[in-house]
Amino acid sequence: MRLTRSDAERRIAEEVHSFLSAGAADARELPEEFDARIAWLREWQRRLHEAGLVNVAWPTEHGGRGATLGEQMVVEQELARAGAPELIGVVGLGVVGPSIVAHGTAEQKRRWLPKILSGEEIWCQGFSEPGAGSDLAALRTVAEDRGDHWVLRGQKTWTSWAQHATWCAVLARTDLEAAAHKGISYLVADMRAPGIDVRPLEQLTGEPEFSEVYFDEVAVPKDQIIGAPNAGWSIAMHSLAHERGPAVAARAVKLRVLLDRLIADARRLERDGRPVLEDAEVRSLLARTHIQLEVLRCQSARTVGTMIAKGRPGLETSIDKLQLTRAEQLLGDTALAVLGPAATYAPGWQNVYLYSRAASIYGGTSQVQKNIIAERILGLPRS
Ligand SMILES: Cc1cc2nc3c(=O)[nH]c(=O)nc-3n(C[C@H](O)[C@H](O)[C@H](O)COP(=O)(O)OP(=O)(O)OC[C@H]3O[C@@H](n4cnc5c(N)ncnc54)[C@H](O)[C@@H]3O)c2cc1C
User: Fold this and answer.
1) In the prediction, which pLDDT does 1 show?
2) Domains of the chain by range and CATH?
3) In a designed cystine with 65, which of 56, 260, 320, 356 is the match (CB 3.0 to 4.6 A)?
4) How far is the CA of 203 from the centre of ligand 1 (A)?
5) CA 350 to centroid of ligand 1, rounded, Å
6) Can 243 be counted among the known catalytic residues?
């Protein structure tokens, strides 16, 4: 476990501080209206990339800085500590991009990575389907081999940022005879291609962050496959491990900042003529959230240490995802107890409680993470 920073990590943290002090962006400044917020976030990612502070561990020839994963984590944590907004290109940067870095061809890296970093091209992740979520290998979207291209047919759902995306990483069945996990390929569809229909879905937060995506005879050129045909399953698992692990370290810092704000609010607010802090339930929730965030900080530091040593995230990311979910939901409950209904509409808080409900579902549900921990980490028999 790494709880201290190297000299290089301290230097890059200072670089982030000087960038922020020259014109900091605070998530509380984000426009209320959804489309205006997306435009604002794109511009924020562009500025951050211009300063050389997006995914610094990516190779220099593709726009990164060839820094260590440790330095990248430090950049993300310091941005979170300053209350900076999360990046709109999160799927490209944190889920699909790492798999392109690890498994893509030189041409694919040259073509896609720089625009993922700058936020010029947003990516989405077309994995889940109406009949394939936890049981992802049950997916039914098909890609038929037509010689010089594939033809995609099927439906994806819960596809985050699809309506803003230029590219979609699509898991599709390319061998109908093979066993479930074996006949799947990791294709890249151009979201501007004919035959793609994106239908936004409104979430509990009232915002259309994800969509249904229909593929009706969509042509995908043969060079838009990551890895070999029918070898997509292990690449999908690589993407999901990145979704569950490395991002957690920065998110943990963000939640700590929010808890500190809640503690400050609890100190000054009154309800029914009495200080909010006198409420035993509020005190208990604040303490439990603090403890959970400490557990998350240590767990995440352990995972980051393992990841730096091995060069990739492993099964332990399921523990991070589970602990993050607990922290998100406890913080949401605490916000509701301290702020009352304002926790669902006050600036900076609108999505904290409502979105925390999704934490036990996205990136693999809590039950599925528990199964992975039980069977694959602890070696318990399959249930
Ligand atoms: C905010 C949000 C964003 C998302 N973004 C994306 C995205 O960009 N791309 C994408 O591909 N997907 C995305 N998803 C989808 C997400 O990955 C799936 O919702 C998730 O994998 C669960 O699948 P499901 O919804 O089909 O539920 P199901 O798999 O049908 O599960 C239903 C319930 O059964 C439980 N269950 C299922 N199997 C087991 C088991 N073996 N043991 C115990 N319990 C079990 C589950 O835990 C759950 O409670 C997103 C979801 C959310 C909420």
Assistant:
1) 63
2) 7-88 (1.10.540.10), 123-228 (2.40.110.10), 245-377 (1.20.140.10)
3) 56
4) 15
5) 24
6) yes
